[in-house]
User: Which sequence fits this backbone?
């Protein structure tokens, strides 16, 4: 495999453009079987109702059981078992489905489990909360099937309710009472992470990102260190290394090809940088990860 397969949102699945869907996992299994490792260009909240097996999201691996929800943002790398026996539903949507109403481009990052820096992409629901969320997934699916063009309000309300209920299951205490200055810093850091996601292959200079955010490089370094625990440069490089790990683990691209894909002038520097952050060479990482 020369690259990780990317799935885009099927906007006209129901004959007219609709940026949301609830898909039973049984309907996804032919895609999982053909490309168990893939990326999505949209948000995905997958609720497991039956089965137990391992799922990997950006190399965070978890043994999934009923009541688990895997939460992915655009660009995340999924790793399924090719013969997956899990059952459940995937609530999938494009950012524009909600942002066109809430008019806040960072609206979704306010939910901790949809923030790229959340420590785990998996949530565990139990009891009444699990029942509420599962019922809402079924209700959203029914609304989608009976969708009338330009009547999105009920769907948005139901999705917003799901997002709010899932927030109860996430680790939210650390940001439960933000001061106004902390809120501004978090908005800048969320925007920075989004910019890095879009530009890390071609631009690793802190000045570029600071200019895009209309703040100084020093301030960007300060707030990323305060909130993420590393300065901006380190965050960018860690993103590069994480994506390089995905390529090493899931594709057949050579080390030289991966180095070129990520904008390095020569593979020697890439190998040194990878060793600095991963603790092993790219070659050893590929051997150890795939063995």
Assistant:
């Amino acid at each position: 495999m020369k690259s990780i397969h990317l799935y885009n949102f099927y906007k006209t699945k129901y004959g007219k453009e609709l940026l949301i869907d609830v898909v039973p996992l049984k309907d996804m299994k032919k895609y999982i079987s053909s490309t168990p490792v893939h990326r999505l260009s949209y948000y995905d909240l997958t609720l497991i109702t039956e089965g137990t097996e391992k799922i990997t999201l950006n190399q965070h691996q978890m043994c999934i059981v009923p009541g688990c929800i895997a939460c992915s943002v655009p660009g995340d790398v999924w790793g399924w078992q090719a013969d997956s026996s899990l059952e459940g539903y995937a609530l999938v949507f494009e950012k524009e489905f909600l942002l066109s109403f809430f008019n806040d481009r960072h609206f979704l990052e306010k939910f901790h489990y949809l923030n790229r820096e959340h420590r785990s992409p998996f949530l565990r629901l139990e009891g009444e909360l699990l029942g509420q969320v599962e019922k809402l997934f079924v209700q959203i699916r029914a609304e989608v099937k009976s969708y009338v063009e330009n009547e999105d309000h009920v769907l948005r309300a139901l999705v917003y309710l799901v997002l709010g209920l899932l927030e109860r299951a996430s680790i939210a205490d650390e940001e439960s009472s933000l001061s106004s200055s902390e809120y501004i810093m978090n908005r800048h850091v969320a925007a920075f992470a989004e910019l890095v996601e879009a530009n890390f292959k071609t631009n690793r200079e802190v000045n570029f990102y600071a200019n895009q955010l209309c703040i100084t490089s020093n301030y960007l370094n300060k707030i990323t260190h305060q909130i993420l625990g590393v300065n901006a440069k380190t965050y960018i490089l860690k993103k590069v290394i994480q994506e390089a790990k995905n390529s090493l683990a899931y594709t057949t691209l050579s080390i030289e090809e991966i180095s070129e894909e990520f904008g390095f002038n020569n593979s020697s520097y890439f190998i040194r940088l990878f060793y600095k952050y991963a603790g092993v060479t790219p070659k050893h990482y590929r051997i150890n990860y795939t063995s």
